[in-house]
Amino acid sequence: MRFNFIPLYRLIRHALPVVMLFSLLPVGFGESLSVANAAALQPVNSDTSTQARELYSYLISISGKKIITGQHDYLESPDELSNKVQKISHSYVGVHGYEMGAISGQSAATEAAQRKNVVDSAIRWSRSGGIVTM
Predict the structure, then answer these.
(1) What's the pLDDT at 118?
(2) What DSSP assignment string belongs to the chain?
(3) Domain assignment present for 102
(4) pLDDT value at position 5?
(5) 30 in a domain, yes or no?
(6) pTM of the entire structure?
(7) Is residue 130 one of the residues assigned to a domain?
(8) What pLDDT does 34 receive?
(9) Could you count the other beta carbons within 10 Å of the beta carbon of residue 122?
(10) If we measure between CA atoms, which residue out of 83, 88, 67 comes closest to residue 125?
(11) Residue 103 has what pLDDT?
(12) Domain total for the chain?
């Protein structure tokens, strides 16, 4: 008697990624924070800045209601991909991620200039109302 394992292999190949994806979701996925629960949540750091508290409150207020999109750019060109998203979609992303790590073997002077460009871009992004991640 010969067993055919191909169907089992296909099942595992297609089902396993789905199971793994759902295992990454937090408990209570799909449930927004209730107003009562949200009011009780406080930042871990009691010395958090006013701006960080405002961002935190905003994120809690949109839980289950809105989605914020984002784009990460790299050190050598801190606005390239975000600009491409804006050009294609005619909308700006809400979160702009920046890279500070130099991995291209650039000189110390080039690295310093690139990091300055990243910081300048992040300041502009924040002043325009965007959320910055580094």
Answers:
(1) 96
(2) -----HHHHHHHHHHHHHHHHHHHSPTTTTPPPPHHHHHH---S-TT--HHHHHHHHHHHHHTTT----EEE-BTTBTTHHHHHHHHHHSS--SEEE------S---HHHHHHHHHHHHHHHHHHHHTT-EEE-
(3) yes
(4) 47
(5) no
(6) 0.66
(7) yes
(8) 56
(9) 19
(10) 83
(11) 84
(12) 1
Contacts of 82 (CB under 8 A, 6+ apart): 71, 73, 92, 93, 96
Of 83, 118, 82, residue with least CA distance to 99 = 118
Range of the domain at 108: 68-134
Q: Which amino acid is at 6?
A: I
pLDDT of residue 3: 44
Whether residue 3 lies inside any domain: the answer is no
> What are the per-10-residue average pLDDT scores of the chain (134 residues)?
50 60 56 57 85 89 88 93 92 92 90 96 94 92
Location of structure tokens 């996925």: 29
In this structure, the chain runs to a length of 134
pLDDT value at residue 22: 60
